[in-house]
Amino acid sequence: MGDVPGTSFHSKTTGHVSRSVKSLCTVATNVIIIVSSIFSLFIFVKLTGFYEQNRISIPCPKAAAKHRLQESQNITYSSKGVDKPPNKPKLVIFWYPGPGWDYMLLRDYAKPVFKSLGCKIDNCIYTEDKSLADEADAIVFIARSLGSKPRKLPHQRWIWVNHESSCYSEEAGGVWAGMFNWTITFRRNSTIFFPYGYAQKRPRPLTKNYTKTALNKTKLVAWMVSNCVTRSQRERYVSELQKYIPVDVYGACGPLKCSKRDDKNCLDKINRDYKFYLSFENSISTDYVTEKFWKMLDRDIVTVTRGPANYSRVGIKPEWHINTNDFKSPKDLADYLKYLDMNVTAYVKHLEWKNQYVGLYSKAEVYCDLCAKLNDPSEPVTWYPPGELNKWFIDGHCIPPNDLDFNT
Ligand SMILES: *[C@@H]1O[C@H](CO)[C@@H](O)[C@H](O)[C@H]1NC(C)=O
Ligand SMILES: *[C@@H]1O[C@H](CO)[C@@H](O)[C@H](O)[C@H]1NC(C)=O
Ligand SMILES: *[C@@H]1O[C@H](CO)[C@@H](O)[C@H](O)[C@H]1NC(C)=O
Ligand SMILES: *[C@@H]1O[C@H](CO)[C@@H](O)[C@H](O)[C@H]1NC(C)=O
Ligand SMILES: *[C@@H]1O[C@H](CO)[C@@H](O)[C@H](O)[C@H]1NC(C)=O
Ligand SMILES: *[C@@H]1O[C@H](CO)[C@@H](O)[C@H](O)[C@H]1NC(C)=O
Ligand SMILES: *[C@@H]1O[C@H](CO)[C@@H](O)[C@H](O)[C@H]1NC(C)=O
């Protein structure tokens, strides 16, 4: 994820975790808004006008949570006089390893964006205050930065949240072995499925002249990338492809530069000039389809994917992309792209479905799901025993590329 600086929808520089130096609550909140919104905001601006709402001042989440917790305790404990009233709000702690972190929209819980989701069941209080650990009903840990381990109480759900591919993940051992009850990941059968993005059907299809759009394009294939050596060896696939068709490489791994700070502008240019965009994942890993795919869904460019064997599992229809998997070799793929370049009618067919859907990055809605599950008394007692997270998430799910044997 986040191979291209500034293109990951939740990070500034290093993948999915960003730090800000200042820890003042309001400053941090603003930083988070900017960082986590780089990619989602322009969609929100167009669709919902959330940007305006985001600009209003936001209470410090930590202080607010503590206050709400106290408030609700005062009410429930004093009025009912029982130890565990049935509708006492569930306390969820986001266990950041240090101040100033943000991860996959976790902090959205403190924003109007989250409130506006109107969770059906919202009997939850979210906080980052580690001093409340013993009172927590659930603690959400970031898999690759677990931080220091608190004491675990039996009624608590500890949650492993991860968006790295199986090739770049590992279950923590030692004190963490067997600690996790639930998972939140991009894998289809996580306890709570949290993909990078999704497609939403438009109320009405767009009426666009895609032939006109297509005829305006002067270039063929664009690739934007900054992680040059990967487990999927996409770089080898692309060099082979380049023998047969020009591929313009933008970012740290290629000669062409786009303004990093103005990613939208850059994508706008690519969108206008190019017919094809390579959304090649850094790993071939079950269900691992990142923003590289989703950010192009809304654009009038045909996406070429290289990633997991089955994109349908995460809701991506075959006609939405050209998949390298369907071609014997990079040369065959190049031949097909060149054919589409010559045949506008056929090319436009690949574009036209885009008038039906809008691409959205995943929202903090998963935290509605989490809250609903925590409030559901029928949820079973369950956990991943030591080694089981590896078995489920990693073993056999980092797939070695099988399309790099170019001589046959
Ligand atoms: C709840 O009780 C705590 C301590 O007893 C107190 O400090 C706080 O002000 C009370 N909150 C409300 C809203 O009454
Ligand atoms: C996920 O699905 C696999 C098979 O696709 C199954 O073996 C496994 O038990 C499932 N895991 C969970 C947590 O449901
Ligand atoms: C779409 O644009 C093309 C090229 O400019 C033009 O020939 C065609 O008539 C247009 N179609 C419609 C329905 O406007
Ligand atoms: C065609 O490209 C030009 C610049 O090259 C741009 O100004 C114009 O908006 C484009 N038209 C369409 C229909 O995309
Ligand atoms: C791909 O996933 C879809 C949806 O889960 C399933 O219906 C289909 O059979 C799968 N295709 C293959 C080739 O496994
Ligand atoms: C161009 O594509 C259209 C639509 O797929 C097809 O019907 C037509 O035969 C193609 N023309 C050529 C010259 O290949
Ligand atoms: C959570 O996992 C622990 C093991 O780490 C287990 O003892 C406990 O019963 C589980 N709790 C729930 C509510 O599932």
UniProtKB/TrEMBL annotation:
UniProt family annotation: Belongs to the glycosyltransferase 10 family.
Domain Fucosyltransferase N-terminal: 90-197
UniProt keyword annotation of Membrane present: yes
PANTHER family to which the protein is assigned, alphabetical: ALPHA-(1,3)-FUCOSYLTRANSFERASE C-RELATED (PTHR48438:SF1)
Pathways involved: Protein modification; protein glycosylation
Assigned EC number: 2.4.1.-
Any one GO MF annotation of this record: fucosyltransferase activity
Domain Fucosyltransferase C-terminal: 216-380
Transmembrane parts of this sequence: 20-45
InterPro entries (UniProt xref): Glyco_tran_10_C (IPR055270), Glyco_tran_10_N (IPR031481), Glyco_trans_10 (IPR001503), GT10-like_C_sf (IPR038577)
Topology in the lipid bilayer: Single-pass type II membrane protein
EC class (word): transferase
Any single GO CC term annotated in Swiss-Prot or TrEMBL for this entry: Golgi cisterna membrane
Primary gene name: LOC106163945
Organism in which the protein naturally occurs: Lingula anatina (Brachiopod)
Pfam families documented for this protein: Glyco_tran_10_N, Glyco_transf_10
UniProt-recorded name of the protein: Fucosyltransferase
